[in-house]
Amino acid sequence: MAKRTENTVKLGLFITIAVALFIAAVYLIGSQENMFGATLRISSIFGNVNGLQPGNNVRYSGINVGTVESIILLNDSTVQVNMKLDKEVQPYIKKDAVASIGSDGLVGSMLVNISPGKGPEPMLEEGDVIASYSRVETEELLNTLGKTNENIALISNDLLRITNYMTRGKGTLALLLRDTQLAIGLREAIYNLQATSQHLVATGGQLQHLIGEVEEGSGLLNQLLYDTTIITNLNTSIDQIDTLAERATPFLAELQRSAEGISASSATLKALLEGLESGQGTAGLLLKDTAAAEDVRRTLENIAAGAARFNENMEAMRHNFLFRRYFKKKKKEEPKEEKEEAP
Fold it and tell me: What is the model's pTM?
């Protein structure tokens, strides 16, 4: 009888402990799954969940606020993640919140991180779908890092080759390092470039000053741009210049004809001088042939002497009594002829 009682006590104690453990397990699981409190169900769409599973944590600003309820494959490139959040955090999560999938540490389980939005949006409601952000996967990151390492290796080889060329004195850079004259020329070119830049800066300052005068309403440029009187005067001057040009056109044409005549006369004179120089023609003969020139001189002297004797004879005839009356009559008729010819 005592032994049966002992067994009964053991059985009752075992059952009590088992029930307590069961209740504790149910409580722990329920607290993790938020089975005994008010919940808020939302979802988000991803292209890749990266091994996320139902029951993984959902964090908001680094705080556990819920769990992943289910994962639904919508099509070959879209996955819907349904989340169950504590009702308490509803006032703090807005509709512009963004969900992303990360890991709990380097080797921890996957989880959903919800980042707060930046705008004054209303709070989430039951069944809302929030935006998602897909982070770079570890595999993609490693592939990118591998390509980067390969590129770094190629760059290192190129740098090594360039360094070898420089050490051996080959290439433009090595020439710049070794040739002092070229380095001096390059330095002077840089100085000239700096001086040119300074001139450009000074020119820019002057241009800015001119623009300031235009904006202030002063200066010659402002008057040219905005003073209508100057424009009118310029137009009038241009019209006068056009009129003067039209009037000068006949004069220029006459000048051109005169120039052509002068050119023709010059050609004739040149030909005459060439003839004189070569001894052709009467004038050339007189210039070149001294005997002919002497004959012409004598002829002119004889003509002059004959004219003198003729004048003496005429004077003698004027005083001769036979012709005296004729000359007196001729002398009286000359004033009458002059009066008739006068207007």
Answer: 0.37
